[in-house]
């Protein structure tokens, strides 16, 4: 298992491109870590994508170019990513870069240099046919996509419409508790939906009627998970607000363990 991890990480290490950063929906001047341009065994990819006009931030998407940042793919960015990477460094022995890497599916073969990518606010995602084809190839060649912060049946349908362009022959399924993705490092049999920081203000721990947390995925022909979607669960907020005393520790603890398990799984399967 260890040999497999380092073989994959070593291949990615050899071709990593320089760090780049874009303005986010919430943060435009977040401090850049000193090792942002250093190569590392693991770098967290942040998926860039065009947004649907029917998604959660549909109106906002109409007036901004997703290639320049500030749209739905930058939700919680870069604070969530960098807090999570600190936790990965503390909880594992993987050599981790402290800064994420935005990944654009239109940028040649760049996506293939990042074995693990994260798509937040995936409900507005509206991939073109070319982007879907590229993502399909990436996943079938061993890549891993994590998605989070999609709430309610309507937004789930918008998200899965894009994913059907990627895999018209494959469907999301509920991941059983016995699957190794929930046990590869931490035992995550006792999971629960994670509310975002917004719930501290509203008092309501869910959005769009999405009351119950689900963990759904897409498998390849060898029963390897290629895509994990935390549905009705704001995993990225649990990373973003991990240093906020008002945000319940139990949610950050679960969210970080989920993310670490996904990385470990992706690098060993």
Task: Describe this protein with a few key phrases.
Rossmann fold, 7 strands, 7-stranded mixed sheet
Q: What does this molecule look like?
A:
There is one protein chain. The protein is an alpha/beta fold. The chain has one domain: Domain of unknown function DUF4159 (Rossmann fold), CATH 3.40.50.12140. It is built from eight helices and seven strands; from the N terminus they run αβααββαβαβαββαα. It has helices at 2-15, 58-61, 79-91, 129-140, 152-166, 199-202, 235-240, 249-268; strands at residues 45-48, 101-104, 116-120, 144-150, 173-174, 214-219, 225-231. A seven-stranded mixed β-sheet has the order 2-1-3-4-7-6-5. α4 packs across α5 (152-166). The longest helix is centred in the C-terminal third of the chain and has 20 residues, at 249-268. The radius of gyration is 17 Å and the shape is globular. It starts with a helix and ends with a helix. The model has no long low-confidence stretch (mean pLDDT 91).
Largest sheet: 7 strands, mixed
Which percent range fits the helix content?
25-40%
Count of separate DSSP helical elements:
8
Question: What is the count of distinct domains?
Answer: 1
- The average pLDDT is 91
Distance between the termini: 9 Å
CATH fold name, please? Answer: Rossmann fold
Order of helices and strands: HEHHEEHEHEHEEHH
Q: Which architecture name does CATH use?
A: 3-Layer(aba) Sandwich
